[in-house]
Amino acid sequence: MTVTTAVPPRVLTVAGSDSGGGAGIQADLKTMLALGTHGMSVLTAVTAQNSLGVQGAWELPVEAVRAQYRSVVDDIGVQAVKTGMLSSAALVETVAALLAGTDAPVVVDPVGVSKHGDALLAAEALDSVRTKLLPVATVATPNLDEVTQLTGIEVTDEPGMRRAAAEVLSYGPRWVVVKGGHLPGEAVDLLTDGSEEHWLRAPRLDNRHTHGTGCTLASAIACGLARGQDVPTAVRGAKAYVTGAIRAGFALGGGIGPVDHGWLARGSAAPA
Predict the structure, then answer these.
(1) CB of 158 within 8 A of CB of 229?
(2) Which residues are catalytic?
(3) 136, 15, 10: which is closest to 77 by C-alpha?
(4) DSSP of 110-130, one letter per residue?
Protein backbone atom coordinates (compact mmCIF):
# COMPACT_ATOMS: atom_id res chain seq x y z
CA MET A 1 0.00 0.00 0.00
CA THR A 2 1.40 3.35 -1.05
CA VAL A 3 1.26 6.10 1.55
CA THR A 4 1.12 9.64 0.17
CA THR A 5 2.68 12.16 2.51
CA ALA A 6 2.16 15.88 2.10
CA VAL A 7 5.37 17.77 1.34
CA PRO A 8 6.04 20.45 3.96
CA PRO A 9 7.05 23.97 2.90
CA ARG A 10 10.70 24.06 1.83
CA VAL A 11 13.02 26.65 3.37
CA LEU A 12 16.66 27.16 2.42
CA THR A 13 19.34 28.63 4.68
CA VAL A 14 22.48 30.13 3.13
CA ALA A 15 24.79 30.54 6.12
CA GLY A 16 27.84 29.43 8.05
CA SER A 17 28.23 26.45 10.34
CA ASP A 18 28.41 26.81 14.13
CA SER A 19 30.29 23.80 15.47
CA GLY A 20 28.73 24.38 18.89
CA GLY A 21 25.25 23.90 17.43
CA GLY A 22 23.65 27.07 18.80
CA ALA A 23 23.66 29.41 15.81
CA GLY A 24 24.30 29.33 12.06
CA ILE A 25 22.89 26.56 9.88
CA GLN A 26 22.47 24.34 12.91
CA ALA A 27 20.09 26.83 14.55
CA ASP A 28 18.36 27.44 11.22
CA LEU A 29 17.65 23.77 10.53
CA LYS A 30 16.45 23.16 14.10
CA THR A 31 14.08 26.12 13.79
CA MET A 32 12.76 24.92 10.44
CA LEU A 33 12.07 21.46 11.84
CA ALA A 34 10.40 22.87 14.96
CA LEU A 35 8.10 25.03 12.83
CA GLY A 36 7.01 22.26 10.50
CA THR A 37 9.02 23.01 7.38
CA HIS A 38 11.67 21.10 5.44
CA GLY A 39 15.02 22.80 5.98
CA MET A 40 17.81 22.75 3.38
CA SER A 41 21.23 24.36 3.54
CA VAL A 42 23.93 26.05 1.52
CA LEU A 43 27.08 26.19 3.60
CA THR A 44 29.12 29.39 3.19
CA ALA A 45 31.73 29.00 5.92
CA VAL A 46 32.95 26.66 8.63
CA THR A 47 33.64 28.03 12.10
CA ALA A 48 35.35 26.59 15.13
CA GLN A 49 32.95 27.94 17.73
CA ASN A 50 31.74 27.17 21.23
CA SER A 51 30.04 28.88 24.16
CA LEU A 52 33.09 31.13 24.67
CA GLY A 53 33.43 32.52 21.16
CA VAL A 54 34.73 31.91 17.65
CA GLN A 55 38.19 30.38 17.53
CA GLY A 56 38.45 30.22 13.72
CA ALA A 57 36.51 30.68 10.49
CA TRP A 58 37.10 29.36 6.99
CA GLU A 59 35.11 30.64 4.01
CA LEU A 60 34.01 28.22 1.29
CA PRO A 61 34.85 28.97 -2.35
CA VAL A 62 32.28 30.89 -4.37
CA GLU A 63 32.00 27.93 -6.75
CA ALA A 64 31.02 25.61 -3.90
CA VAL A 65 28.36 28.00 -2.64
CA ARG A 66 26.90 28.49 -6.12
CA ALA A 67 26.87 24.74 -6.80
CA GLN A 68 25.06 23.97 -3.53
CA TYR A 69 22.44 26.62 -4.22
CA ARG A 70 21.75 25.53 -7.79
CA SER A 71 21.64 21.87 -6.75
CA VAL A 72 18.88 22.50 -4.23
CA VAL A 73 16.85 25.19 -5.97
CA ASP A 74 16.86 23.68 -9.46
CA ASP A 75 15.71 20.24 -8.30
CA ILE A 76 13.80 20.63 -5.03
CA GLY A 77 12.68 24.25 -5.17
CA VAL A 78 12.11 26.63 -2.27
CA GLN A 79 9.25 28.61 -0.73
CA ALA A 80 11.58 30.94 1.22
CA VAL A 81 15.30 31.61 1.64
CA LYS A 82 17.16 32.88 4.69
CA THR A 83 20.72 34.23 4.52
CA GLY A 84 23.16 34.46 7.41
CA MET A 85 26.96 34.60 7.50
CA LEU A 86 28.36 35.84 4.18
CA SER A 87 31.84 36.88 5.17
CA SER A 88 33.26 38.43 1.98
CA ALA A 89 32.18 40.77 -0.80
CA ALA A 90 32.54 37.93 -3.32
CA LEU A 91 30.16 35.70 -1.36
CA VAL A 92 27.67 38.51 -0.77
CA GLU A 93 27.55 39.38 -4.46
CA THR A 94 27.32 35.75 -5.57
CA VAL A 95 24.45 34.98 -3.21
CA ALA A 96 22.65 38.23 -4.06
CA ALA A 97 22.73 37.32 -7.76
CA LEU A 98 21.36 33.85 -7.02
CA LEU A 99 18.57 35.27 -4.89
CA ALA A 100 17.62 37.81 -7.55
CA GLY A 101 16.87 34.92 -9.89
CA THR A 102 14.81 32.94 -7.37
CA ASP A 103 11.06 33.45 -7.10
CA ALA A 104 10.73 33.19 -3.33
CA PRO A 105 10.72 35.60 -0.37
CA VAL A 106 14.13 36.27 1.14
CA VAL A 107 14.99 37.01 4.77
CA VAL A 108 18.42 38.65 5.11
CA ASP A 109 20.11 38.49 8.48
CA PRO A 110 23.11 40.79 7.83
CA VAL A 111 25.42 38.96 10.22
CA GLY A 112 28.32 41.21 11.20
CA VAL A 113 29.47 40.05 14.61
CA SER A 114 28.90 36.99 16.78
CA LYS A 115 27.17 37.01 20.17
CA HIS A 116 30.67 37.19 21.67
CA GLY A 117 31.76 40.18 19.58
CA ASP A 118 33.78 38.26 16.98
CA ALA A 119 33.80 39.84 13.51
CA LEU A 120 32.04 37.64 10.92
CA LEU A 121 31.91 40.08 8.00
CA ALA A 122 34.87 41.71 6.27
CA ALA A 123 34.73 45.51 6.34
CA GLU A 124 35.06 45.66 2.55
CA ALA A 125 31.92 43.52 2.20
CA LEU A 126 29.66 46.09 3.86
CA ASP A 127 29.11 48.06 0.67
CA SER A 128 28.12 44.86 -1.15
CA VAL A 129 25.58 44.12 1.59
CA ARG A 130 24.11 47.59 1.14
CA THR A 131 24.06 47.68 -2.66
CA LYS A 132 23.59 44.02 -3.66
CA LEU A 133 22.08 41.96 -0.84
CA LEU A 134 19.62 44.28 0.90
CA PRO A 135 17.87 45.26 -2.37
CA VAL A 136 16.78 41.62 -2.89
CA ALA A 137 15.51 41.19 0.68
CA THR A 138 11.84 40.79 1.51
CA VAL A 139 12.77 41.32 5.17
CA ALA A 140 16.10 42.42 6.66
CA THR A 141 16.72 41.68 10.36
CA PRO A 142 19.70 43.69 11.68
CA ASN A 143 20.45 43.98 15.38
CA LEU A 144 21.68 47.28 16.77
CA ASP A 145 25.38 46.50 16.21
CA GLU A 146 24.65 45.57 12.60
CA VAL A 147 22.57 48.73 12.15
CA THR A 148 25.60 50.76 13.23
CA GLN A 149 27.84 48.83 10.83
CA LEU A 150 25.48 49.43 7.93
CA THR A 151 24.31 52.98 8.59
CA GLY A 152 26.65 54.58 11.13
CA ILE A 153 23.66 55.26 13.38
CA GLU A 154 24.16 54.33 17.04
CA VAL A 155 20.74 53.50 18.46
CA THR A 156 20.13 54.20 22.15
CA ASP A 157 16.33 54.48 22.27
CA GLU A 158 13.14 53.70 20.37
CA PRO A 159 13.13 56.93 18.30
CA GLY A 160 16.62 55.94 17.21
CA MET A 161 15.28 52.58 16.06
CA ARG A 162 12.82 54.40 13.81
CA ARG A 163 15.60 56.53 12.28
CA ALA A 164 17.79 53.49 11.77
CA ALA A 165 14.96 51.55 10.13
CA ALA A 166 14.40 54.35 7.63
CA GLU A 167 18.09 54.33 6.74
CA VAL A 168 18.17 50.55 6.25
CA LEU A 169 15.03 50.73 4.09
CA SER A 170 16.79 53.25 1.86
CA TYR A 171 19.06 50.40 0.71
CA GLY A 172 16.10 48.57 -0.80
CA PRO A 173 14.59 45.83 1.39
CA ARG A 174 10.78 45.73 1.39
CA TRP A 175 10.62 45.43 5.19
CA VAL A 176 13.10 45.77 8.03
CA VAL A 177 13.05 44.42 11.57
CA VAL A 178 15.36 46.47 13.78
CA LYS A 179 16.03 44.24 16.77
CA GLY A 180 16.24 46.25 19.98
CA GLY A 181 17.22 43.46 22.33
CA HIS A 182 20.37 45.28 23.43
CA LEU A 183 18.38 48.25 24.76
CA PRO A 184 17.34 48.31 28.43
CA GLY A 185 13.79 47.46 29.44
CA GLU A 186 11.45 45.32 27.35
CA ALA A 187 12.78 43.30 24.44
CA VAL A 188 11.36 45.49 21.68
CA ASP A 189 11.71 45.12 17.91
CA LEU A 190 10.47 47.49 15.21
CA LEU A 191 9.02 46.08 11.99
CA THR A 192 8.32 48.61 9.26
CA ASP A 193 8.10 49.00 5.51
CA GLY A 194 8.31 52.78 5.74
CA SER A 195 4.56 53.32 5.75
CA GLU A 196 3.32 51.07 8.55
CA GLU A 197 4.98 50.28 11.88
CA HIS A 198 4.65 47.32 14.18
CA TRP A 199 6.30 47.52 17.60
CA LEU A 200 6.80 43.99 18.90
CA ARG A 201 7.34 43.76 22.64
CA ALA A 202 8.16 40.89 24.96
CA PRO A 203 9.27 40.73 28.59
CA ARG A 204 13.02 40.73 29.16
CA LEU A 205 13.82 37.28 30.47
CA ASP A 206 16.38 36.60 33.18
CA ASN A 207 18.40 34.15 31.08
CA ARG A 208 21.79 34.94 29.61
CA HIS A 209 21.79 31.84 27.39
CA THR A 210 20.75 33.57 24.18
CA HIS A 211 23.26 32.29 21.61
CA GLY A 212 21.56 31.94 18.23
CA THR A 213 18.68 34.36 18.70
CA GLY A 214 19.33 36.29 15.48
CA CYS A 215 19.65 33.21 13.29
CA THR A 216 16.58 31.70 14.93
CA LEU A 217 14.40 34.78 14.42
CA ALA A 218 15.32 35.15 10.75
CA SER A 219 14.73 31.45 10.11
CA ALA A 220 11.39 31.53 11.91
CA ILE A 221 10.30 34.48 9.76
CA ALA A 222 11.30 32.54 6.64
CA CYS A 223 9.20 29.59 7.84
CA GLY A 224 6.16 31.83 8.18
CA LEU A 225 6.67 33.31 4.73
CA ALA A 226 7.08 29.82 3.26
CA ARG A 227 3.67 28.98 4.73
CA GLY A 228 2.14 31.89 2.86
CA GLN A 229 1.85 34.31 5.78
CA ASP A 230 2.22 38.02 5.21
CA VAL A 231 5.27 39.71 6.68
CA PRO A 232 3.71 41.12 9.88
CA THR A 233 2.11 37.76 10.71
CA ALA A 234 5.35 35.88 10.04
CA VAL A 235 7.38 38.28 12.17
CA ARG A 236 4.94 38.18 15.09
CA GLY A 237 4.98 34.39 15.07
CA ALA A 238 8.77 34.35 14.90
CA LYS A 239 9.02 36.75 17.83
CA ALA A 240 6.79 34.48 19.92
CA TYR A 241 8.84 31.41 19.00
CA VAL A 242 12.14 33.11 19.86
CA THR A 243 10.77 34.41 23.16
CA GLY A 244 9.87 30.86 24.14
CA ALA A 245 13.28 29.60 22.99
CA ILE A 246 15.07 32.22 25.10
CA ARG A 247 12.95 31.36 28.13
CA ALA A 248 14.01 27.72 27.76
CA GLY A 249 17.67 28.48 26.93
CA PHE A 250 20.20 26.38 28.79
CA ALA A 251 23.84 26.43 29.87
CA LEU A 252 26.46 24.66 27.77
CA GLY A 253 30.20 24.92 28.30
CA GLY A 254 31.68 27.81 30.20
CA GLY A 255 30.10 30.73 28.37
CA ILE A 256 26.82 31.74 26.73
CA GLY A 257 24.53 28.79 26.12
CA PRO A 258 22.01 28.43 23.28
CA VAL A 259 18.33 29.08 23.10
CA ASP A 260 16.21 25.93 23.10
CA HIS A 261 14.94 25.38 19.57
CA GLY A 262 12.93 22.37 20.67
CA TRP A 263 10.93 24.05 23.42
CA LEU A 264 7.63 23.59 21.61
CA ALA A 265 8.10 19.84 21.27
CA ARG A 266 9.16 19.58 24.89
CA GLY A 267 5.92 21.13 26.06
CA SER A 268 7.47 24.25 27.61
CA ALA A 269 5.09 27.03 28.52
CA ALA A 270 4.08 29.33 25.68
CA PRO A 271 5.63 32.82 25.74
CA ALA A 272 3.68 35.40 27.69
Answers:
(1) no
(2) 179, 210, 212-215
(3) 10
(4) ---B-TTS-B-S-GGGHHHII
